[in-house]
Amino acid sequence: MGIPSTPFAVLREFYAEEFARIEREFRASSNGRRATQDRAALLDRVILDLSRQFFAPDTAELKKISLVALGGYGRRELFPHSDIDLMFLCEDSAAEKRFREGSHAISRALWDLRIRVSPTHRFLGECEKFQKDNPEFNISVLDSRYLGGDHGLFERLRNKALPRMIQAAWSDLVCDLAELTEQRHKKEGDTIFHLEPNLKNSPGGLRDYHVAWWIGLISRM
Predict the structure, then answer these.
(1) Residue 178, CB half-sphere, CA atoms under 13 Å: how many?
(2) Residue boundaries of the structural domains of the chain
(3) Which of the chain's ends, N or C, has fewer CB atoms near its CB within 10 Å?
(4) How far are the Cα atoms of 39, 44, 162 from residue 122, in angstroms, in the given order?
């Protein structure tokens, strides 16, 4: 038996209160890692609640669709006003058609909560293929994390589709990472002498740490 969904007005109040709580605790402790993880956990709760409203009362019983966090959200690194990358992973076109209205409703509800969501819809088969025209997606899916829905479908993504994509396009992934890194450094003036809030993208910043992590990850897959 699934947990009943929360009325939207109550959910909006809950999100606002929890967001404020996370901010208060950060100001008291200066624990940035905990703040980013707490915001990711808060979004997990909100999205699962909306899924119970627009998909099924028990999301564990959903078949052929899986809700997947990508990018920084997948890594549980959500800064206070970061947008969230959310993938609706469907097994086939029939499942996408069946759940299309619900997935759009979830995205609209998140926007109504003033959460900047970047939703994407993918079939499992698409995730096996290297997207030449979308290097950002190829990279963000490396940090995919299961939220709800068909867990077996997500396991096939992590254990079969992604390894196949990486094995077939390892050198292309590395080249994309190198090119995106070079472009980012150039945009930041190729200097390490940046102050907040420009520490993320400059040389030696947080994004370079992520690049090193991704290189290690695809080397092991």
Answers:
(1) 6
(2) 8-220
(3) N
(4) 25, 20, 13
Residues 6+ apart with CB under 8 A from 27: none
The alpha-helical segments, DSSP class H, found in 113-161 are 135-140, 151-156
pLDDT digits 0-9 by tens, 99-140: 999 999 999 999 999 999 999 999 999 999 998 888 889 999
**Cβ burial, residue 95 (10 Å; 0-12/13-18/19+):** buried
Fill in the amino acid letter for 7.
P
Whole-prediction pTM value? Answer: 0.87
Residue matched to tokens 């969904």: 5
The three state secondary structure string of 57-70 is: CCHHHCCCEEEEEE
| 8-220 is a CATH 3.30.70 domain | no
Rounded-to-integer distance, Cα 106 and Cα 101, Å: 9
1 pLDDT higher than 50: no
Closest Cα to residue 126, out of 101, 149, 156?
Answer: 156
